[in-house]
Amino acid sequence: MTWGSYYYCAICGGPFGGCNFQTGSERCSFQATEEDETVQDGFNRGYDQNIIQHVEVLWTEIMLILGLKRDETACIVGPAFLEHGSGSSGVELDADEDGRYRTLRSHGKFYTYINSNGFDYAWKPLFPFHWPCYKLLARALTETNSNVPVATTTNQIDKHVLFIVMERKINTASKCLNLDYGLAATSQDYCWRSIPGYELLVAPFDETPSTSTLLRTTCTISPDALHFPAVKGDLTAKVKSDPFQKLPNEIIGIILGFPIDIVSVLNLCRASWSVRCVLQDNDLFWKGRIRIDLPCFFELHQLMAEDPELLRGKNVKGLLLALHEMTRPMKGMTGPFMGLANRRRVWSVCEQIAALYWDVARES
């Protein structure tokens, strides 16, 4: 086994390679305690190769680095590779023919997540990340700002603004940012812990034709078979009190137009039979909720835009709830939806960064 990454992606909180693997027969129970999830000699037990293969995690080995050039302008360099086993937060970049990698402001080594405050010499920190994570962040910057008319590309990200955001979120451990990385926090130790049951943390989540095919196929499956059947029967006569029953549908629509999550919408449906009746077969509403509650399912959004017949006659509400549940990032997850679950996890971090990004951009 090898030591895992000593510091983590600023965007997803995941490792830069160094993942360990074991065979399925060696896999331990998911019921193990937190203390049991690392073997006695300090190494990681390893991911189950029946769930994820080494070739599928190669994307984690290549990093890009955000830093400052000598003229104090922010830039991104790479690809760079971490030399595992050094136990250091420094990384050395080989210069290209133009010496481009050597233009980063530093003192000797390049240090990730470490500022020079209190030292006799000055350097600025570097922030490493994966390319797929950076692309997802670009999409999040568009989705979280209604004033951005077209999709943000990686070339359009203001690197200086992003540097300020990340510098403000440096944590004391100097291994990642002070953000909520979800399940990844379980594996972030002295080095990355390849804990069985958490394979989804390194599952590839980039947009691919296979993901589009998976989602199209899912749209053809009856939500009844996915355990989210449509509600049948009329309980109006049994309702004793429902304040929403007195409201026009237009007012209910305004209430549902507020930024509330899917759990709140479902709770409202449970609390009010009249609201449930208004929404139950309202495919237009539930199609809109797909974009709201599954904002990073870009392939599904494109399928819906290109094929208006895709969801015609389907239980759209049931489909939304099924996809929402099947891609919920959780321990022990396996199967074809692992990549989408990891994308949802990383997207939640991107939303945190995006909110800070636009705050800093408005300050400039």
Automatic annotation (TrEMBL):
Domain of life according to the entry: Eukaryota
InterPro entries, alphabetized: F-box-like_dom_sf
Protein's name according to its UniProt entry: F-box domain-containing protein
Organism of provenance: Cercophora newfieldiana
Lineage: Eukaryota, Fungi, Dikarya, Ascomycota, Pezizomycotina
